Amino acid sequence: PGLSWRHGERIVENPRAEGRVDLRRLAGVWDPAPSRAEVEGWGWPYLLFETQRGCPYRCGYCMYGRTAPNPRPLDFVDELAALMDQGHVVELCDPTFTTMQERAKQILRALIERRRNDAGGLYIEAYADSIDDELARLLKAAGVVRMGVGLQTASARGLRAASRPENLERFA
Predict the structure, then answer these.
(1) What pTM was estimated for this model as a whole?
(2) What are 60-82's pLDDT values in tens digits?
(3) Long-range pairs, 66-72, Cβ under 8 A, ≥24
């Protein structure tokens, strides 16, 4: 349930899943990890990795907020650290990794403890309002090499119209 895929030119879509998906079933997605040469041949430079689904915000233009946050238990950190230690840049598919600030800090601290070298890195999407000094230090220490920060608009009226919570002063 909830799975969709391309079969030739046709899109196959199963019925929606009822309730929350057990994200523990995603453990070991990159086991064994592809080589760096393999990844280079894919035409996308990052391994994709999901630590949560959904978003607590209900922005009018975004599909992530249609699903309540469903964080994956933190047992994935060993796999994530190992991928980074093998030289991979891992892109977290979470809509905004830093939105759940305390959870993001837990993940980053765990990565810092487990990383053995600086070979790879992490690419995240961030909600700029949520980045305090401590989180900024953790992002750097954990190996974040790329961060997307989506400022949807600088207009408070536009943000209200899109139901996008944002503290523009904090963002700046």
Answers:
(1) 0.79
(2) 777 777 778 888 889 899 999 99
(3) 68/20, 69/100, 70/20, 70/21, 70/23, 71/23, 71/100, 71/103, 72/23, 72/24, 72/26
